[in-house]
Amino acid sequence: MGVEPVIMSAGELESERAGEPGRLIRDRYRTASQVVQNQGKMSCLMINDLDAGLGRFGHTQMTVNNQIVVGTLMNLADNPNRVSIGQKWRESDITHRIPIIATGNDFSTLYAPLIRDGRMEKFYWQPTREDIINIVHRMYTKDVGYLLRKFQAL
């Protein structure tokens, strides 16, 4: 597709240092904006398994970093062209609007205002059998010969 993604994982959404994950999200968002500015390529911020990092499961507590990350993502959704550097806002500093793509298994565990219509577009994908076959084939292309030889005797 020609998109240069900037990728984060759920593990980066927590830190011993308060505010660090929020800063990291802003930095990665600005990096994606710089890809557009400097390389002329489309870019996006991709956060894998968002629900694993921010979801509420059972009686788990929400940490300060969880709250900051949710606030940061909501701010980016509402003001995508104004992203602070640290704690400073520069009047002339405008970033490109960058899509944020988040993957997950159960977004119902996320803070409801973050995933409301208008702030987040949701795409639920239920792979077909053909999709699954294609995924497995691409994942294990190098192993097909070995598997056929190994299980031919059965």
Automatic annotation (TrEMBL):
InterPro entries: ATPase_AAA_core, P-loop_NTPase, RCA-like. Keywords: ATP-binding, Chloroplast, Nucleotide-binding, Plastid. One of its GO terms (molecular function) is ATP hydrolysis activity. It is found in: Plastid, Chloroplast stroma. The keyword Chloroplast applies. Pfam families: AAA. GO terms for cellular component: chloroplast stroma. Residues 2-126 form the ATPase AAA-type core domain. PANTHER family: PTHR32429, RIBULOSE BISPHOSPHATE CARBOXYLASE_OXYGENASE ACTIVASE, CHLOROPLASTIC. Belongs to the RuBisCO activase family. Activation of RuBisCO (ribulose-1,5-bisphosphate carboxylase/oxygenase; EC 4.1.1.39) involves the ATP-dependent carboxylation of the epsilon-amino group of lysine leading to a carbamate structure. This is Ribulose bisphosphate carboxylase/oxygenase activase, chloroplastic. It comes from Aegilops tauschii subsp. strangulata (Goatgrass).
